[in-house]
Amino acid sequence: MRQHRLILLALALNIALIATLGAMRLAPAQQGLSKAPVTASYTLAVTLDPVAKTVRGEGIITYVNPSPDTLHELWLHLYLKAFSADDTLWMRESGGNHRGFASEESRGDITLTRLALRDGADLLAASTITDTLLHAPLPTPLAPGAQVELAVAWTSQLPRVFARTGYGGRDDTFFMVGQWYPKLAVYARGQWDTEPWHVNSEFFHDFGRYEVALTAPAAYVIAATGLPVGEPVPVGALQRQTFVAEDVSDFAFAASPDFQVHTAQAGPSEVKLYLLPEHSASAQRYLKVAVDSLLTYGDWYGAYPHARLSVVDVPASAGGAGGMEYPTLVTGGGGGLEISDGYDELVIAHEIGHQWWPMQTATNEAREPWLDEGITEYSGARLMETTSRKLRFGLAIDAATLDFALYASNPAMRADLPAWAYTTGDYAIGAYSKPAVGLITLERVVGAERFRGAMAAYLREWRFRHPAAADFRAVLERELGTLDWFFDDFIAGEGQIGYKVLSVKNGTVTVERTGAVRVPTEVQVRFASGEAQLYQVDGAVAQNTFALPVGKQPVSVVVDPAQKLFAELDLTDNGVYPAVQFLPTVTLGARLTFWLQAIVQTVGLFG
User: Fold this and answer.
1) pLDDT tens-digit profile of 225-283?
2) Of residues 1 and 200, which shows the higher confidence score?
3) Is-contact 395 594, C-beta < 8 A?
4) What residue numbers bound the domain in which 574 lies?
5) By percentage, how much of the chain surpasses pLDDT 70?
6) Per-residue pLDDT reduced to its tens digit, 122-141
7) Which residues pair with 1 in a beta bridge?
8) What is the arithmetic mean of pLDDT over 312-336?
9) Could you give phi then psi for residue 374, rounded to 5 degrees?
10) What is the CATH classification number for the domain harbouring 24?
11) How confident is the model at residue 481 (pLDDT cuts 50, 70, 90)?
12) Are 566 and 404 spatial neighbours (Cβ–Cβ below 8 Å)?
C-alpha cells in the first residue's frame, strides 16, 4: 500500500513537471544532418506500477498539420486494445499466438480518461473507438501548418509478454513497454492512416520530439528512447527520470531491477547494453555486434543520427519481447537459442538496421512492409557476411543462405503485399526473405559500390520523411538505371530467375531465359586455347544467341559465372561442357544445407 501511495504522489508531482519540460533540447550525435519535421510531439509524465502492471500517464500531445489540407478530425492509435479481448482483430488473426509465444494470461488494454484541447474543450465525449482506433472530430478545423495541443490522461494495462510488450522474467519484474500510449495516426498523401492493428503489422508514425518523465521504483534500471536528462530524482521509494528524444517517431522503454549496464563507443554514438545476469558472459559479444552494425551501416548508408543506441536483453520467459526495434532502442534474443550460435548476433544486426529503415525513412510498415523488413533483412545478412559471422545449426552457414532457403520454400510469394494479406509463414517470406534475396541479387548485378551509393542517395533524399515504394524505385532507377526486372518481375511478381544454356552448335551459343524475371546476366565461354570470353545476356529477350570466334573450340559455356544471380533456384542447367560432357554439380539441394525446421525457428521472428 505504501508503494501505491507513493505512486499517487508521483502522479501529482508529474502534473507540475509537464509544464517545465518544454525548454529541454538535445544536441544531435552527428553534426550537419538534417532535422526531422516536428509534426507529432509528446510531453508526458508517466508512472510504471510493477505490482499492478500498469503505466499511468498524462501530458500534452502537440500536432502540426503537415499537409496542404484542412483537417476536421484526428485519429489516434490505441494499440493495447488489441489485447483486451479474444474477439479483437489482432487476437482473431493471431489465434492467441505470436512468433511462437502464446497469450495465456495476456490481457492488456488502454483506457483514456481525458482527451481535450489544451484550452479545456473536451474531445472524448464525441470520440468513437473502433478496435484499436479512436476517431475524434475537431470543433474547429485545423488549417495547413496550424497546431493543435491535446491534453491526455490514460492508464495502460500491460499484458504478460507474448507480443512485443508487457511483463515477465524473474518474479515478473521485467517490463518491455511498447505501443503503450495514445498515438496520433499519420495524415499523408491526402488521407489518414486508419488501418487497425493487424497481427503481422508494425507501425507508421510521424516524427517529433518526446519529453517523458518516467517514475518507477528506485531499484529499477530503465532503458528508454532518447537520452536521460540529469540524474534520477528520488520520490520516496521511487525515482523519476526524464528522457528527451528528438527526430524520432516513437518512444519505448524497458525496466528491470536486474539489468547490468555495459557501455561501448561507436564513433560519436554511445552503445548502452542492458544485460540480464544470466547472459553476463555475452556482454562483449553483444556490444561488438552493436558497434559493428552502427559503424558499418553508417558507412554504407549514412550516419546514425543519435547520440545513443540502447540494446535491451530479454529473459527467456519474456521471449516475445525479443527481436524488436524502436527509435534508438532495440531488443535482442527471444529465439530460445544459445547466444554463441550466432542467432542473437543476427537479431541485433537486424534490429539495428531498422535504425535506418524505417526509423529514418518512415515508411508505412503495415501497408508496404518489405520497405523496412526486406531492406533490413538484407542489411543484417550482409553485415553478418562482412564481419565473418556465421549461424550454427550443427554446421556454420551464412545468414543470406538462411534467407535463400526460406525464399526457395515459396518463391512465387509476392513481396509487395500489405502485412495483413499474408499468413504468418508467408509474411516471413514476402516481407523479409524474398526482398532480401532480391536485394543481394541486385547488389551483385550492379556492383556493391554503385548499389550502396544508390541506397545512400535514397536515405539522403527521404531521411525523416514518409517514402513509399514508388519513391524508393525512383531513386534507385535514377542512380542505377531501369530496374523493371527487380521491381515489377521479382518484388511484385510471382516469377523466378532462371537461365539455361540451350545449345552450343555451329559456332554459336544460345542462352534461354527460363524464368519470368528479366534480369540481365552474363555467359562465359572458355576455349580450348585457354582463352575465355564474356558475353552480356539481355534479360528482356527470351533467347540470346552469340556467334563464337571462327576456329575456336569451346570447352565450357557457363551462365552467370560470377554467381551474381543469388536468387536463381536451379543451377543444374547453367553450364555445358561439350569437351567432357558433364554438368555442374551445384544444385538447389546443395544450397539448402540445413533443415527447414531451423529456418522456421529463426527467420521471421524479428521485428
Assistant:
1) 999 999 999 999 999 999 999 999 999 999 999 999 999 999 999 999 999 999 999 99
2) 200
3) yes
4) 499-591
5) 89
6) 999 999 999 999 999 999 99
7) none
8) 90
9) -70, -45
10) 2.60.40.1730
11) very high
12) yes
Q: What is the C-alpha to C-alpha distance for residues 399 and 391, in angstroms, rounded to an integer?
A: 6
The neighbouring-strand residues paired with 42 are 61, 210
Q: Report yes or no on 233 lying in a domain.
A: yes
* Total domain count, the chain: 2
Residue with C-alpha cell 489465434? 95
Look up residue 33 and give its three cell numbers: 544532418
The 3-class secondary structure across 143-164, one letter per residue, is CCCCEEEEEEEEEEECCECCEC
**298 in any annotated domain:** no
Q: Annotate 503-548 with DSSP letters as a single string.
A: EEETTEEEEEE-SS----EEEEEEETTS-EEEEEE-TTSSEEEEEP
Residue 426 located in a structural domain: no
Cell 533456384 found at? 569
Distance, CA of 474 to CA of 46 (rounded, Å): 43
SS3 for 421-456, per residue? HCCHHHHHHHHHHHHHHHHHHHHHHHCHHHHHHHHH
In angstroms, the CA 374 to CA 368 distance is 10
The CA distance from 312 to 307, in Å, is: 17
Report pTM: 0.92
User: How far is Cα 179 from Cα 202, in angstroms, rounded to an integer?
Assistant: 10
Using CA atoms, how far apart are residues 293 and 353, in angstroms rounded to an integer? 7
Q: Look at the block and give the residue holding cell 552480356.
A: 536
Nine-digit cell string for 365: 510498415
In a domain, 271, yes or no: no
